[in-house]
Structures are given as C-alpha cells and as structure tokens.
Amino acid sequence: MNNMATILLYPKVDCPVGCAYCFADPGVPTGAKYDKRAMIEKLGEISGDPHESVILHGGEVLSLPVRDFEFFLKAVYKLRGTTHIQTSLVGLTAEHIRLFKKYKTNIGVSVDGPPELNILRGPRDSDQNQTYQKKLVKNMAWLREKNIGFGTISVLTKANAVGDKLETLIEWASTNGINGRFNPMFLPFWSDSLSQYQLTPQELKTAWIRLAEVALENPKLEWLPAREFIDNLLGCSSLACCIVARCDYLTTMCKTIMPDGNLARCDRCFQDGYYYRSNLPTTARADMLGQTECSDCKYFSICGGGCAGEGEGGDPRHKTMYCEAYYGLYEFLEKRIRGMMPNVTLSVDVPDYYNECCMKGKRINFTERMKEGTWMSSPPDSGHEDYYMDPEQNRCNCGGGEHGR
C-alpha cells in the first residue's frame, strides 16, 4: 500500500501565460483539439480509488471554452463530489467563480511570489508581463473577496529563493496566508538559457530548511514538502508526496489523461519528450539505488532516491540531483522532532520500514517508547509489533487515539 496517485485531465489547450520554464515540449502542438468524452471515459476506467485526486490541468484550463470547462468539472464532481484545478488565473471570469462554487472546486494557483519575484512566470515581453502580474494579484484578491480558498505551487529558483529574495518570498506567503508546495525548477532539455536560474542542491536545502523553520512556528502554514516529510518521519500516513514514494519512471504514480483519451505518465516527464506509459510498473530503480548510490542512506526508506525526473545528469536511473536538499530537510526535521520528543519512534528506527510498513499498510505507533520507565529506550527490534498500528483497525495497538488513514 503506497502513496495515492494523482490523475491529471490534460486537454493541453493553448496556454497564454508563457512562463520561461514551462516544461511542455514546444515541438508538440498545443491547439484545442481534444476529445472530452474520450477523456472522461478513460477517467471512468482508471478512477476506482476514491482517494485519488483528479485535477483539471493544462495548458491553462481557464482558456477552455466555458461549456467544456463545466463539462469536465461536472464529470469529475459526479465521481468525487469535489473538483480540483491548477491554474495561473489568466482569463478568470465571474462565470468561472460561479462554477467553482457549484462544483466545490479546490484551486491550485501557479505563482512564485509577489510580482518582483514572479518574473519567470508570464509573457516574456516586459510590458505584457507587467500586465500579467497586476492581473494575477487582482484575481487572487478577487477569489478571497468571494470566499474561495486556494493553494499554490511555487517554483523555487535564483529569482525568488536565495538571500533576501527568499525572505521576501516567506514574508509574502506568511502575511497572505499562502499554503502550498515549493518545488525546485525543472530545467527542460531544450533550454540552456534557464540554467542561470536553477538552484544548486545546497541552495535548495537552505531554502527548504528556512521555509520549514517558519512553518514550524505557525501550525496554520501548510508548506510542502516540509509538512509531508514530518509525516513520513512519524510514519503515521502513506509516503508523501510522489517524489519520495518510489515512483516508477516508466509508469509514474501520476496518471495523465491526454487529449485523445490515452493514458500518459506524469507531466514532469514531458520535459524529456516522453509521454505514454508502460503497462507494468517496476521497482528496478529503487532496488538498484538501494544497493548502490543510496545503500548507506538512513532516509532511503522514506526517500527512495527522490524524483526520477531529477536524476543526476538527466538520467532517471540515478538518484535525484537534489539529494543534499532531501537529506538536509529530513535531517533538520528529525532533529526538531527528537528535540521535542527524545523517546519518539520514527520511521528511520524501524528495520525495513518501507517493506514492513508502507507496503503492508501499517502505521508506526510513534508513542510506544513514551511509557513510564522507557525514557532512554533503544530503537525497536525487528518484528517488534508494539511499534506498529494494527493494519485492520484505525488505532494504535497500545490503545491510543484514533488515527486517520
């Protein structure tokens, strides 16, 4: 039992935004030729798990004709009782807002900070970019005015995540109550000019740890991946997100329904010009890394070598080029957790945690050693069932409180 997958509905309509680091292959046409019924038929075939998120993605989904936009929302709402989209808010109208409320839409906004930091998003023409930045700020305020919540995906680069720029990003996100994900920039194979903006592993480590420090001071800030990495250490939920859940590069945990209704891999693979997926998943990459590059890593069970799309040297067989950042964030969070709870049991204390817990649907009872007289208890021995939650019940073996799955 591993991390739940994400399903992307990807009409791949023309995107008017023009972000500098877009990883959509410019050699592939992005016209509005899509078979919406074939796409929804495929969705019905693969969406058996109600916990899988279904996200209307793009392109820019708000550039869809409104009737088609509602068609997709209505179909997903029928399956899930809620809907999700990812958008830059370009083209937002009052009709979209009405549909958001009608179909209980969870909105992810693509934005990298305030306008002075958001420079890699939007049209490359200076005047058009300024217009875009003003419109984006206005549309975010419009959503708030209409009591429509949203999260964000921010791409971390040298334009927004080093030195004083990082502090400006943090101030913007904190004061505006921004919750969301902070991802490193992917460098498309066809674009050498963007390398000047790509963070080094050390810079990403510094940014992630700084973001985590702030989030830990404010429980209302759901900043990822820090919050996910905490859960991974505590072992009380499925591994999250997909970048640490041993995602297979040939199938990927993220399923993308293409405009013709065929099934493709995660859209991160599109940067390499790879689209359609294999029928059978494999654990070959993680198995290999566990014996080679990651064999001595204490966090491998909750990292798996990181995202294959970030493989060193552009090779998905290698561990992520950002290994230092993954390791550094885990190490920082582990020290914080143990500093507050010295006798806590973490996933890294459990022998063969991935196979014994993740793949069997077990959860760690991280309070097991928090009993009278066990303040200095040693890590659990292999097979010590008291350290696991009962896989058949939603509670700890020790009789502790309820835990969500």
Strand content: 5-15%
Mean pLDDT figure: 87
Number of strands: 9
Strand-and-helix sequence, N→C?
A: EHEHEHEHEHEHEHEEHHH
Ranges where pLDDT stays below 50 over 5 or more residues in a row are 372-386, 390-405
CATH class of the domain at 6-155 and 252-278: Alpha Beta
Query: What's the total helix number?
Result: 10
List the strand order in the largest sheet: 7-6-5-4-3-2-1-8-9
What is the distance, rounded to the nearest whole angstrom, between the alpha carbons of the first and last residues? 11 Å
Report Rg. 22 Å
CATH fold naming of the domain at 6-155 and 252-278: TIM Barrel
Question: What's the story with the biggest beta sheet?
Answer: 9 strands, mixed
User: Mind telling me the CATH superfamily name of the domain at 6-155 and 252-278?
Assistant: Aldolase class I
The dominant shape is globular
Please name the CATH architecture of the domain at 6-155 and 252-278: Alpha-Beta Barrel
Fraction of residues in helix: 25-40%
Main structural class: alpha/beta
Give the topology, please.
Blueprint: E1 6-9, H1 36-46, E2 53-56, H2 66-80, E3 83-87, H3 94-102, E4 105-110, H4 126-145, E5 150-156, H5 163-175, E6 180-184, H6 201-216, E7 223-224, H7 226-234, E8 255-257, E9 263-264, H8 284-291, H9 323-340, H10 353-356
Helix pairs in contact: 6-9, 7-9
